[in-house]
């Protein structure tokens, strides 16, 4: 082990592009194509503007030289590596990223290491100035997913194939770095792998011990630490049939990383429990000796998961080599993404203070990721935003981008949501029985009560479906909030509203439509309280979100309305909304104004879809509006995106709707068909909106700034799944009614009133 030394706690900020190329059967899935980065050179300027020092960057074997280095196409890599060099960002070049190589090879091909080394030499000769390499990303993880679990090619599920894939990849790393260093002797190895930790009941301690040794195996092989007295040596010999000579080769040919790259996720720390009856929603597995479940440790351990600092310190104690966090990403809501990156950053500083040589923290992934919810086994285009959000005409920086800039420039970042803990540090994370009772003497001290002290969001809209739903989702997301009725905001004067803001000290205010028709109500008696609220928030630099609707448009445009289209209301309510929007933006130029379509949600029963289902389940006909085409929008989708945009610091007008268009009658028929109910009982009817029986108005919204929500059909399927759960919630959580409001029962028919349209 190298002599340990204490280094400066000043950490570099690195970043990475999700570049996984996996083979599933005979199909290759390329994240670079899905994200569009493959054709966007100007992404590199966006990345450099964050102040990052280095970037994990792909020059992938499968894409560059699938038929061998002699026929390689270097044009893509030439252009991009050259641009990074001009921008002053160091590339950490990756050659294989969860891949199995071109079609002529695989992770079980004995010639795989020599083939990788041949390609690595060609890359080094092409770019002799590149100093840092990750020849193969996460060899242990890739071996597990490809040869132990069977998710990726070659789709094996046995210990022998797993061991073979692991050893072949690690051998490839050694030979690749040898070839690279023959060209550039100063080249450095940044070797990444996922690092977690396994906990268990006493009965399964033997399995946890095995997994806690296995987690180090790729680095142990490269550093020559895997010797006959190592637990994994015996396992590889006994269970996987590996010959002593194959293992001894690594001891004779050590290739220790210059930087140990730690990738750790919330899902990396696990708990094993043979008491499967405690986990009715989990599918048990077996090791041939015991049947048990494998769950997130944070869900069952009172003290919580170990966390980044502890894992980094363990790594330092084991190897005494420089360390970097080479992936820091949480596929979750925006505040949880920020909180996880913050915990990574603080954990790295804590490890430095404890004496570890930690060099950097890497934001992963710059452009987000696709389809990791299915471990890339399908190409559904399920997208998780990252530092940039791709659901826009060009990549849109999120709050994470601001955080990276601050960390790179100042070493710290402050956002109000960071005052609250991530879900993995809150008591409501326990969805299974606790393994043991909490022990105040051993708790990690990071758990906070649900009513933690943090700057809140003020939600003006108590008693309204939107206001109550906002509060519900803020509570689920761990966002501190206060839900107020309009009358609790004062008398409508700047002085009284200012006093309320002074009392609660919010970082943001959400006007959940509470003042939607304020202008119509107030007439000449006073100023629009929504506009006053905007001015008060602006004077205190408090973020403001105001939520409006499609009523600012008449519906005779002939195409979907964008944010850039002038408001053209047809009625008094629409005119009031349009005037209010303008007054809000005049009073608070930094305000965010979201327009949405008619909403339906699992908690609110006062919408045509709920009414139709309520009727059809009782076997009665329902009459649903069919002469106005709208953008039906799922309330949880709207709220989640609205909160993300507010946290991102977005401003101006945004249209946030589920994509597509339909009348309420069409949506109701689709819901009936999806639920196996008779669609013939859904009868279209006119509202008072359409001037002629044959004319259908179209108040359809679309966004020129970014389509952030999926289709209304996708939302409807989720609504039908979540509706029963919401209906079962205790009374008072969001309320349950026997018959939706806005509905009239005439004999055996249910008629939706015009207000419900």
Give me the count of strands. 32
Mean pLDDT: 90
Question: Could you say which overall geometry the principal axes of the C-alpha atoms support?
Answer: globular
* Radius of gyration over all CA atoms, rounded: 29 Å
CATH superfamily of the largest domain: Glycosidases
Number of helices: 23
Largest sheet: 8 strands, parallel, barrel
Weakly predicted, low-confidence segments: 1-8, 440-451, 519-524, 730-757
Roughly how many Å apart are the termini?
72 Å
CATH topology of the largest domain: TIM Barrel
Strand order of the largest sheet: 1-4-5-6-7-9-13-14
Helix content: 25-40%
Strand content: 15-25%
Give the oligomer, counting copies of the same chain as homo and different chains as hetero. Answer: single chain
Structural class: alpha/beta
CATH architecture of the largest domain: Alpha-Beta Barrel
Number of domains: 2
Main features:
757 residues, disordered N terminus, six-stranded parallel β-sheet, alpha/beta, Rossmann fold, TIM Barrel
What is the compact description of this entry?
With 757 residues, the chain is of the alpha/beta class.
Please render the helix and strand layout as text.
Blueprint: E1 12-16, E2 21-24, E3 27-30, H1 31-35, H2 43-48, E4 54-58, H3 61-64, H4 75-87, E5 90-97, H5 112-126, E6 132-137, H6 139-148, H7 159-183, E7 188-194, E8 197-200, H8 205-214, H9 217-223, H10 231-238, H11 244-252, E9 259-263, E10 269-273, E11 285-286, E12 291-296, H12 308-319, E13 323-328, H13 334-353, E14 358-364, E15 369-370, E16 383-384, E17 388-389, E18 396-397, H14 399-410, E19 457-460, H15 465-477, E20 481-484, H16 494-504, E21 508-511, H17 518-522, H18 529-539, E22 543-549, H19 572-587, E23 592-596, E24 599-600, H20 608-617, E25 621-625, E26 628-630, E27 633-634, H21 635-648, E28 652-655, H22 664-675, E29 682-685, E30 697-699, H23 712-727, E31 743-746, E32 749-752
Parallel strand pairs: 1-4, 1-14, 4-5, 5-6, 6-7, 7-9, 8-10, 9-13, 13-14, 19-20, 19-21, 21-22, 22-23, 23-28, 24-27, 25-29, 25-32, 26-30
Antiparallel strand pairs: 2-3, 10-12, 11-12, 15-16, 17-18, 31-32
């Amino acid at each position: 082990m190298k002599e340990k030394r204490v280094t400066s706690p000043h950490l570099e900020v690195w970043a990475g592009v999700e570049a996984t190329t996996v083979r599933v059967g005979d199909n290759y899935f390329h994240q670079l194509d899905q994200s569009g980065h493959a054709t966007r050179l100007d992404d590199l300027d966006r990345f450099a503007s964050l102040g990052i020092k280095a970037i994990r960057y792909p020059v992938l074997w499968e894409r560059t030289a699938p038929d061998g280095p002699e026929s390689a196409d270097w044009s893509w890599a030439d252009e991009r590596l050259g641009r990074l060099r001009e921008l002053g960002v160091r590339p950490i070049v990756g050659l294989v990223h969860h891949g199995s190589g071109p079609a002529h090879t695989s992770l079980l091909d004995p010639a795989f290491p020599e083939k990788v080394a041949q390609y690595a030499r060609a890359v080094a000769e092409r770019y002799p100035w590149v100093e840092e390499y990750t020849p193969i990303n996460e060899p242990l993880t890739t071996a597990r997913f490809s040869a132990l679990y069977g998710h990726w090619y070659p789709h094996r599920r046995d210990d022998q194939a797993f061991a073979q894939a692991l050893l072949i990849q690690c051998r490839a790393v050694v030979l690749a770095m040898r070839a690279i260093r023959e060209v550039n002797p100063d080249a450095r190895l940044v070797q990444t792998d996922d690092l977690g930790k396994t906990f268990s009941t006493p009965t399964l301690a033997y399995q946890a011990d095995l997994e806690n040794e296995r987690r180090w195996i790729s680095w142990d092989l490269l550093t020559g630490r895997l010797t006959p007295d190592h637990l994994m040596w015996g396992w590889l010999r006994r269970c996987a049939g590996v010959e002593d000579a194959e293992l001894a080769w690594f001891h004779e040919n050590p290739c220790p990383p210059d930087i140990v790259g730690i990738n750790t996720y919330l899902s990396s720390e696990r708990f094993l429990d043979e008491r499967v009856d405690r986990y009715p929603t989990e599918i048990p597995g077996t090791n041939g000796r015991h049947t048990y479940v494998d769950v997130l440790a944070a869900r069952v351990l009172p003290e919580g998961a170990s966390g980044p600092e502890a894992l980094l310190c363990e790594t330092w104690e084991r190897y005494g080599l420089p360390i970097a966090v080479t992936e820091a990403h949480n596929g979750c809501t925006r505040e949880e993404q920020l909180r996880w990156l913050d915990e990574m950053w603080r954990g790295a500083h804590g490890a430095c203070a404890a004496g570890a040589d930690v060099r950097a923290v890497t934001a992963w992934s710059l452009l987000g990721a696709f389809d990791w919810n299915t471990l890339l086994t399908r190409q559904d285009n399920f997208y998780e935003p990252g530092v940039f959000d791709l659901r826009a005409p060009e990549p849109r920086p999120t709050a994470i981008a601001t955080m990276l800039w601050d960390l790179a420039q100042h070493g710290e970042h402050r956002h109000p949501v960071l005052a609250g803990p991530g879900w993995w540090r809150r008591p409501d994370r326990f969805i299974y029985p606790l393994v043991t009772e909490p022990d105040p003497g051993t708790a990690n001290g990071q758990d906070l009560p649900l009513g933690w002290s943090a700057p809140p969001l003020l939600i003006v809209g108590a008693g309204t479906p939107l206001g109550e739903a906002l509060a519900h989702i803020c509570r689920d997301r761990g966002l501190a909030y206060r839900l107020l009725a309009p009358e609790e905001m004062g008398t409508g004067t700047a002085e009284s509203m200012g006093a309320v803001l002074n009392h609660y000290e919010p970082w943001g205010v959400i006007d959940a439509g509470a003042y939607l028709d304020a202008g119509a109500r107030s007439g000449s008696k006073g100023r629009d309280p929504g506009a006053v609220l905007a001015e008060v928030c602006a004077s205190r630099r408090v973020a403001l979100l105001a939520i409006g609707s499609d009523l600012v448009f008449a519906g005779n445009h002939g195409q979907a309305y964008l944010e850039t289209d002038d408001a053209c209301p047809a009625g008094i309510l629409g005119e009031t909304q349009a005037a209010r929007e303008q007054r809000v933006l005049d009073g608070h130029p930094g305000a965010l104004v979201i327009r949405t379509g008619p909403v339906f949600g699992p908690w609110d029963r006062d919408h045509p879809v709920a009414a139709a289902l309520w009727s059809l389940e009782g076997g009665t006909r329902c009459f649903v509006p069919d002469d106005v085409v709208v953008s039906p929008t799922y309330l949880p989708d709207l709220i989640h995106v609205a909160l993300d945009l507010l946290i991102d610091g977005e401003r101006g007008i945004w249209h946030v709707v589920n994509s597509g268009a339909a009348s309420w009658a069409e949506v109701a028929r689709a819901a009936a068909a999806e639920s196996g109910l008779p669609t013939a009982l859904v009868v279209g009817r006119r509202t008072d909106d359409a001037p002629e029986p044959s004319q259908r108005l179209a108040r359809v919204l679309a966004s020129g700034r970014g389509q952030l929500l999926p289709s209304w059909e996708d939302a409807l399927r989720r609504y039908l799944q979540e509706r029963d759960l919401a209906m079962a919630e205790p009374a008072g959580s969001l309320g349950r009614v026997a018959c939706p409001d806005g509905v009239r029962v005439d004999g055996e028919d249910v008629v939706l009133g015009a207000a419900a349209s």
